[in-house]
Design goal:
- GO terms for molecular function: DNA-binding transcription factor activity; sequence-specific DNA binding.
- It contains ten helices and no strands.
- The radius of gyration is 17 Å and the shape is elongated.
């Protein structure tokens, strides 16, 4: 790693920390890029190369992760949607289903006693949403 790579990674980490901290606020790629001291296009390319997903995808994954915690604690789907910064219940439900594999209502109704007994850090790692869909290139070939 050369000094420029280290500097880029430091700036990317600053933007990722912003997303983790401010996930419920309206964030867009230009705002994230500004925190990373990069142009939006360059930021998006480097972020994807470093973290394996686009900045917006990372933001939405964090929002869904936080919504899962709220739903496990008894929040309504609408309240969870609003609390994590989503402005559209339909888009939120679609993204939730894509990442988790069930609707927010189904997730809320499911049994979560085992997760509640885990330390928070373990529960977060265990319930972290992962992409359920095939990558676009594979899906387009089918």
């Amino acid at each position: 790693m050369d000094p420029q790579d280290i500097a880029n990674f430091t700036h990317l980490r600053r933007a990722r920390d912003l997303i983790d901290r401010e996930y419920a606020q309206p964030l867009d790629v230009p705002t994230m890029a500004k925190h990373a001291l990069m142009s939006p296009a360059h930021f998006s390319r480097l972020f994807r190369a470093a973290y394996g997903e686009t900045p917006y995808s990372y933001l939405m994954t964090r929002r869904i992760e936080r919504a899962m915690t709220l739903l496990r604690s008894g929040a309504t789907v609408t309240d969870a949607c609003i609390a994590v910064g989503s402005t559209s219940l339909g888009s939120f439900s679609s993204r939730f289903t894509e990442l988790v594999g069930m609707t927010p209502s189904e997730y809320r109704a499911a049994e979560h006693t085992a997760i509640l007994a885990m330390p928070t850090c373990v529960a977060q790692a265990r319930t972290r949403p992962e992409r359920m869909m095939l990558p676009r290139r594979e899906a387009e070939q089918d």
